[in-house]
Design brief:
This protein is α+β, with helices and mostly antiparallel strands. It contains 2 helices and 8 strands, in the order H-E-E-E-E-E-E-E-E-H.
């Protein structure tokens, strides 16, 4: 009886351990007291990544969710000239789920385990300037089709936002071009007036000098003529 009881206990232990290893990393929806949050979990904000630096964020996600990350580089600072940003998303076990090295990018996948997913933003392409980037990420637990539909809607909103920003930037560039054109025209007119003023000044100076020289020369000639008129010779004066 003791041997049979020990064998029965060993069999129960083996079966329980096998069930524990085959179980998911989170309770199912039917289990009571699980306390799982099955709503949408979204965040959007902007952050500045310093020169040659990296910023990382951790976001908790349950199993069987749709994880998405959308980012867009808004502007660069300092001596940065490369708007690309190296973005990676890693699973709780450390495996790489997706990576991008572009100025605008999207990463989305289905979460296969529960835990904290790490998102890292690396400004490795710029050594002397920071990058301001806008982030939009979250997890959706409404099924794959619903998540796909919401992702498509997010893509439409994102694309419309990018199109609006491009249109605004193009309009701003056109306005800056017109302002620069008017500035160049005004500078050309100012330069023309400056050169005309210098030319008039040189003309007045040379003409004044010439007139002064003529006046001095005519006075000297008059003085010579008067002296010759009143000059006396041996016989009689001329005048």
């Amino acid at each position: 009886m003791l041997t049979a009881a020990m064998l029965l206990n060993g069999l129960l232990i083996v079966l329980s351990s096998h069930c524990a290893w085959a179980r998911k990393s989170e309770p199912s929806l039917g289990e009571g007291g699980a306390g799982l949050f099955r709503g949408s979990d979204k965040y959007d904000f902007a952050i500045v990544v310093p020169a040659a630096g990296m910023e990382c964020f951790w976001h908790f996600a349950h199993q069987s969710g749709s994880f998405y990350l959308t980012y867009m580089v808004q502007w660069v600072t300092g001596m940065a000239n490369d708007p690309r940003l190296f973005v990676t998303v890693s699973s709780p076990q450390g495996s790489l789920m997706g990576s991008k090295n572009e100025a605008v990018g999207q990463i989305h996948f289905q979460t296969e385990m529960t835990g904290f997913y790490r998102m890292c933003l690396g400004n490795h392409n710029n050594r002397f300037g920071g990058i301001r980037v806008f982030l939009n990420f979250g997890v959706i637990y409404e099924g794959f089709e619903e998540s796909k539909r919401q992702m498509q809607e997010e893509d439409k909103v994102f694309n419309s936002t990018v199109a609006g920003i491009e249109e605004s930037v193009q309009r701003l560039q056109n306005q800056i071009f017109h302002v620069w054109r008017h500035y160049n025209f005004a500078r050309m007119r100012k330069g023309k007036d400056h050169h005309l003023l210098l030319s008039n000044l040189n003309y007045v100076n040379w003409w004044s000098a010439t007139q002064s020289l003529l006046i001095v020369l005519s006075g000297y000639l008059q003085l010579l003529v008067l002296k010759r008129l009143f000059h006396r010779d041996s016989s009689r004066p001329r005048c």
